[in-house]
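Sample pair:
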Amino acid sequence: MVTDTLTEADRAVLASLFDGPRDVPGLAARTDWTPEELTERAEYFADNGLVRERDDGRIELTASGRRIVLAPGDGSADDDIDLPERAREALAALGLRADQADAVRHAFAFLAYWGEATAAELREGVYTEAPAGYGSPDDWWTDCVRDALAALPEVEPPAEDGGPWRYARDAEGADPAAEGWKMLDTTAPHEPYTSLTHVLTDESASAAERAAVVAAFETLRERGETDDESIREAARRCEHGDELDEEWFEGRLIELLGSVPFVFRTSDGRWTYVSMRGRADVAAEGTAPEPSPAPDRGAEDVGVIAAAEDVEDAESAEDAEGAESTEHTGDADDR
């Protein structure tokens, strides 16, 4: 019988994944669970954003799963592992549905983990973990997560449209040398990157570079497909674009954007972003694309997108009316 709280046996399963992804038989060999039990329990882990299934069928920990492995096993780290008590109480007071509260909890955990992230980064990094029934990351953000996240203690909304949301850590938590800070940098391989924020943080992007890459990514996400010139133009036209030189737009921008999961670039400079719905479509056909690798510093960063090129991106279709311009408008969705 699957329970709805984490047990010590659950923690043992998650700990077995800490050193790398494994298939169900491999997990069974390292735990006291049968393959059938593990398959059923893994669904619960996945539903709560603790693990994800790779394209090769193996199961791997998410950032939230890694935090749980490193968290104390005294019962304080069960269902609401990612929220401190004050945030947990504030979230409960909002009266959200269970799936909506879960989405906000994931967003809070993502922000607390990375320290800061723009609205675009939160949509890209969290929506697929906890979509809460919303058909697009934009609706998910505007109608569910944004205002609830802003209402939680320790969360600082941006002072201006498109700016970063920040997690106001105490002195100990704000120390970059403290345990858990940028955990993926010390306990997991960098390839592939797990989110847009992971790329920007690990690659030490400046504020101007971050704004430019986010603007380029949002243009690609809205359109589904575009080309090098549209990517560069979107980046140039962001608020801090004039702080970057042309060499950066020609080289570094391409490297950074090409490292984002499910972003692909062909040899002729065509870009494609495979949305969550697009991934489901190609997976159903048995031809899901591989995530784009981290950039090769010595060669042109060229992604390969074969099966995904013919995927009709449902999210892009929903946003088509507002995606005719490459300029990032900075409306309320970007708060």
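Strands lie at 51-53, 59-61, 116-117, 155-156, 165-167, 225-227, 263-265, 270-273.
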